[in-house]
Amino acid sequence: MTIFSVYIINKAGSLIYDYDSPSVNRPAVEKTFSYPLELVLKVFDEKVVVSFGERDGIKVGHAILGINGVAAKGRILEDGRDIMETLATEANYPINIKFGKPHLTTNEKIMLASMLHSLFAFGSQLSPEPNSSGIHTLETDTFKLHCHQTMTGVKFVLLTDPKQAHVDAILKKLYEVYSDYALKNPFYSLDMPVRAELFDANLQQVIEQADKLGISNI
Amino acid sequence: MTIFNFYLFDRHGTCLYYAEWNRKKQLTMSKEEEFKLMYGMIFSIKSFASRLSPTDMKEGFLNFTTSKYKLHFFETPSGLKFIMNTDLSVGNMKDVLHQIFSSLYVEYVVKNPLCELDQPVTSELFKTKLDEYIRGLPQFPIKATS
Fold first, then answer.
1. Would you identify the family this protein belongs to, as annotated (chain B) (predicted)?
2. Which among A118, A126, A141 is the nearest to B57, CB-wise?
3. What is the value of pTM for the model shown?
4. In this complex, do A142 and B85 lie within 8 Å of one another by their Cβ atoms?
5. Counting one residue from A and one from B, how many pairs have CB atoms under 8 Å apart?
6. Is there a contact between B25 and A140 if contact means CB atoms under 8 Å apart?
7. Has residue B30 got a pLDDT over 80?
8. How far is A91 from chain B (nearest CA, A)?
9. Are the Cβ atoms of B62 and A140 closer than 8 angstroms?
10. Shortest CA distance from B19: residue in chain A
């Protein structure tokens, strides 16, 4: 899979649709520790994250996903124990901790979508050339973000592998799917989150096709 | 191909150096405000990219493009940020930005005892050397059509 996620942002900057490809391998490492812990942890954004001490695939920024097989829910475990307290108690050791890159929550996605919306505007404002549009693509070493803004201000955002080609065609196709299955749905009110089964199914199909066959066929 | 302008920020967000070559559009705001806006944008993009990334990042944000220009970004571990705007036909500029850091900034600013490190660069030598270097790049010439 070379397509990671799809986001649709309305003209006011709020997220109206998001899709994450289920086959993306998020790194997760499980390891047994003895007292005292050689990692420095801190609570950040209601999550317990590693702030110092990378080892064995555990990276700075990874969050604790579970302890001794019990999944973590924010800064507490599912059985109600506080993670930081559990880790500070010597009697709990040896202890098995699972680390990984945390999934984005819906709230975080909404925040990132509005962030992109304003970054888009800054991009055109700071242009050294006149009449520049906003950000089209944004490249990092792990992914490339493609943004297609329609005439009506709706943004289609695609997160892909940096090497993925012909993304413009996929974006256009997604726009087509959106106009066919979201906008023609009589129960859909404009600028509101898209909740339509047909749209979901068709979007997924476009992405799967793009991944499997290359773009020539869509 | 052409290079529009170049920004150098330190880790606190102070603009250490700014230079421009073929810039057509001047903003209505003052340079100072423009620097703040640029630093704020880069700072937000960095945080945005690291949160959005599905896997762990090594270098992080590299560049972005709009319909008219491409912004290249390079950051050193000490937090110096090198930003260069070019037109869309320019490929990877990481080596160029690294070169500006290692053989211009380090040589003519860091090794100059009269240069304060967290103050804007006033050294004429650095200014000339950078200008010379940029003008000598294969990416610099403007196409005959424009």
1. Belongs to the TRAPP small subunits family. BET5 subfamily.
2. A141
3. 0.89
4. no
5. 121
6. no
7. yes
8. 33
9. yes
10. A128
A-chain CB neighbours of B52 within 8 Å are 104, 112, 143, 145, 159
Average pLDDT of chain A is 90
How does DSSP assign chain A, residue by residue? --EEEEEEE-TTS-EEEEEE-TT----EEEEEE-SSPSSEEEEETTEEEEEE--BTTB-TT-EEEEETTEEEETTEETTS-BHHHHHH-GGG-SEEEEEEPPPPPHHHHHHHHHHHHHHHHHHHHT-SSSS--S--EEEESS-EEEEEE-TTS-EEEEEE-TT---HHHHHHHHHHHIIIIITT-TTPPTTSPP--HHHHHHHHHHHHHHHHH-GGG-
Structural contact between residues A140 and B61, judged by C-beta atoms closer than 8 angstroms: yes
Quickly state the pLDDT bin for A181 (edges 50, 70, 90): very high
B71 in Cβ contact with B64 (< 8 Å)? yes
Contact in structure between A182 and A156 (CB atoms under 8 Å): no
Comparing alpha-carbon positions, the chain A residue that sits nearest to B68 is A132
Query: Confidence band (pLDDT; 50, 70, 90) for A160?
Result: very high
Whether the complex's predicted ipTM is more than 0.85 is answered with yes
Among all residues of chain B, which has the CA nearest to that of A22?
B54
